Amino acid sequence: MAIREINCLYEGCPIPLLRAIKELKTMEKGDILIISSDHSCVGINIEEWAQKKGYPIELVETEDGSWEVYIEKTE
């Protein structure tokens, strides 16, 4: 299992989702992608997309106004 991170601070929707989709395509099953963002809408949009695709996802508020989104590659 590998862990990859992408920094999406200061990036609004849909850029973080598009970057996550691109990164997930290069990952192996069981790998974890961590997306850092300072926009709560990013987590909501990525969560909706991940649930539709069947990816386990977790949103964590790391500090006031900053978020980490954890997605596990399942396919």
Could you please describe the fold and organization of this structure?
The chain is α+β, with helices and mostly antiparallel strands. 33% of the residues lie in helices and 33% in strands. It has a four-stranded mixed sheet with strand order 1-2-4-3, covered by helices on one side. Strand 1, helix 1 and strand 2 (32-37) form a beta-alpha-beta unit. The protein starts with a strand and ends with a strand. The model has no long low-confidence stretch (mean pLDDT 94). This is Sulfurtransferase TusA family protein. Belongs to the sulfur carrier protein TusA family. Residues 4-73 form the UPF0033 domain.
Summarize the helices and strands and which ones pair or pack:
Layout: E1 3-7, H1 15-25, E2 32-37, H2 40-53, E3 57-63, E4 66-72
Parallel strand pairs: 1-2
Antiparallel strand pairs: 2-4, 3-4
Protein name: Sulfurtransferase TusA family protein
InterPro entries: TusA-like, TusA-like_sf
Pfam families: TusA
List keywords for this structure.
single chain; alpha+beta; 75 residues; 33% strand; globular; 4-stranded mixed β-sheet; Translation Initiation Factor IF3
Oligomeric state as shown: single chain
Query: What proportion of the residues is helical, as a percent range?
Result: 25-40%
Q: Biggest sheet, strands in spatial order?
A: 1-2-4-3
What average pLDDT do the residues reach?
94
For the report, how would you describe the main beta sheet? 4 strands, mixed
- The H/E string reads EHEHEE
The CATH architecture: 2-Layer Sandwich
Structural class: alpha+beta
| Gross geometry | globular
The proportion of residues in beta strands is 25-35%
Just give the CATH class.
Alpha Beta
Radius of gyration: 11 Å
User: How many alpha or pi helices?
Assistant: 2
Protein name: Sulfurtransferase TusA family protein
InterPro entries: TusA-like (IPR001455), TusA-like_sf (IPR036868)
Pfam families: TusA
Family: Belongs to the sulfur carrier protein TusA family.
